[in-house]
Design goal:
303 residues
Amino acid sequence: MKLGIDASNPNHANLKGSLWMMAAMITFAVEDALVKAVSETHPVGQVLILFGFGGAILFAIVARSQGQSLLNRDVLSKTMYIRVVFEVVGRLFYVLALALTPLSSTTAILQATPLIVVLGAAVLFGEKVGWRRWTAILIGLLGVLIILRPTTDSFSALSLLAVIGTIGFAARDLASRAAPLSLSTSILGFYGFVAIIIAGLLFSVWDEKSFTWLDGRSVLYFLGAILMGACAYAALMKAMRSGDVSAVTPFRYSRLLFGIALGMTVFGEEPDMMMLLGCGIVVTSGLFILWRGKAVTENVDLL
């Protein structure tokens, strides 16, 4: 009897994608903390450029070691152009949010990404999303509004940076789903980090801040962030290409736990009850979407 995961079985494919997603979220949370730490002493544009170069070089080495060409016809496809644009938007605004706002709140807002991805998958890819999951999406977005609190004195316009970054990431993930299958994870990762370089250059021109020399600690932070970012990126691309988007993406919420924990232990942040309430609503909505996705799949299998 042959053991292992049967890739042709939708449930097994969803399990595989979910495990990849959890691995991606753990490493992304560590990357966020390192990027925030180095952004406290160096301009955001410099952080993006160095981070992008490090990741691009790493993925280029992996791609070439596997005999893959960095330049081919599919790289110039319309989907890849769209993906690069949204990668630039997502990375730029999210790193700005990390640098200027608390890690815990930035991570919390990012948890709306699965809701946007599921919505996009239904509209663009025709994935079946019933009224229960549509309701969960709307409730989840309400949770984001509770985190933002736009009508209260505690609202900060800087939190909108994380919102824009979240939209950019969701659109990038959807473009990754639609990218040509001939493009490997390494190729997608390479061009993803090239997009981060572009984001850093654009922001540096606008920001007009001089780059600063790196000390030993900053070098370690950069190397750690690059390594964690590359591993997380590869795991995310694997996740988005395994199973149904609506079943895999809710596991992004594991990043929330690690982000809040790192914010509290490393940066001394203290999330208030309203933010925790909003997080709870968003996570509950995402878990419900996951449950409904499994229920739909199981019902179809019985037909």
